[in-house]
Amino acid sequence: MNVVNNRWVPVALVAAWLAAPRAFAADARSAVSEEKLEQQITQLQQQLDQLKAQQQELKAQNEALAAQQQQQAAQAQAASAVAPAGGISPDLSLWGYGEIYYTHPVHDAALTEFDLARAVFGIGYRFDERTVFNSEFEVEHAVASASDAGEFEVEQFYVDRQLAGWASLKAGLFLMPFGLLNEHHEPTNYYGVQRNFVETLIIPSTWREGGVGFHGTTSIGLSWDVGLTTGMNLGNWDNNPQDPLYRTALQLEDNDVAPLQATHQELQLADAQHLSQYVSLNYSGVPGLLVGGAIFTGDAAVATVPAGLPDQRVTLWEGHARWTPGAADLSAVYARGSISNTAAYNLANTGVSNPMPAQFLGYYVQGAYTLWQRAGMRFSPFVRWEHYDMGASYDGIPPGFTTVPSGLAADGLPWPQPNDRVWTFGANFYINPHVVFKADYQDFSVNGNLTRFDLGMGLSY
Amino acid sequence: MIPGSRIVVLPLAAITLCQPAQAMSYLSVEQAQQLMFGSRPLTPLPLALNATEIGAIERDSGVKVYAGSLRAWKADDGYFFTDAVIGKHDLINYAVALSADGKVRQVEILEYREAYGGEVRNAGWRAQFVGRHHGDPLQIGQDIQNISGATLSCQHVTDGIRRLLSTYAIAIAKR
Question: Which of A149, A216, A300, A344 lies in disulfide reach of A232, CB 3.0 to 4.6 Å?
Fold first, then answer.
């Protein structure tokens, strides 16, 4: 600012000099005066030039200072913006999620349960700008020991390396990119106290396999995944339980009843002689819209008893869509799986209570609407209709035999059917984006005794 | 079919793993400047925010201000900014061009590091910010549509742009 003011000093001097009340008589002194005047103007010109140079210098200094300031600011950012996430080290990240259910079967209050279903801890470490390690460890049902129902599981354990702007590679135990829920299974991400049945019984969330996978996104909104992983071990199929595997909807979800739930290996000394491959595509180029699908296929490990069973292939494919225009949230998933050569297996095991299905499928449509929200709080009622069929078709069932025992089970009740149509009505109430309270009512039309009322709390950080 | 794909995948992985370990940069600051302002000159704009201004920006935008996360330049017809937010665990660096009257002209993702959520790079998603200015609510899920599966990245970039517009209104337009 001083520089600008200084510029006016010589101008004012000239003006003052010109305006001064002096006699301009045409006398002998006039030549001398003109000469003096010229000298003064020259001096003023020199002063002006000096000031100009000074101003240039100051401007350059100012710009250099600004650039320096920005550079320092950027350095400060690198230190301050990352540090709060880890605490111990800026390269370490910790996170977690969990959920608690109260579930009340309306036709049999004696089976009401309260369960700390999941407590999950995530640990990540960034080795360098392109390479990150992620892991999640999960305790199910609060207590895990030889005599308790709970489990301790490694849910994810992989290294992800960015290769180029369009592709990354991951290796280890990672989540399969299927449906809307499997990769985003934190309770704050879905409606209802428990996960929907299609993405539990048909897509066996939380579904993970060991292997390698490439993935990437493009600027037009198409993202892709492709990889080679472990697959199913059909030798784990429990084909002849003496009692029904479930009597409540909670047990239906938890007891590894469904074909892929019962046979996926979770990288626990997994059979690796047979590998599977998957491809997944998702398009989210239009804001608010997600459309995608995926397919997984591969030879499975087969039962060793009786010997000589043929090779069997397991295939699962699905399509999904989600549209979130403003306060509404609409979604749909269709999933279908098949197991080849089940006839030989079933013919070798006639008369069992749980033959191996050749096909299984499920689909749902769901609508939610945010009725109210303020400062991170949100109240969103929803309704969902779904159909699942864990035994859509069977091969190798001789005439006179059934796929579900026709009499009563030992507890005096009929055996449950592997298919149902379920209406769910409920609401999610978020007290902030990380903590949600939920309530719902689920009406089962085939297995009426599974109908239930649930309350839940979920969190994710 | 399967043994064949196994043989393709492994050498591909081996070759691509041997690249240098620098951040995955989609655009450099200079490239973003060129993209948004062509060859028009950009002068660095010092933003030494004082405590009063930081407090005002945090109240106005509802987003925490980290010291020095924002850099600004002025052009004859607008402003160029670079800023960063945390996606889930890692920084997302982005650039924003504002017109001379403070409206968003363009948003570009400069660097993205996480394994999930890279869909914020979608041109269609970023285009939702064009024409927005300070005073627009800019709330994710309401006036800015989310990307399913990239929720946290979308949420935090939206928060960052809301903070940037508050900073413009409080610390630049008023000066």
Answer: A300
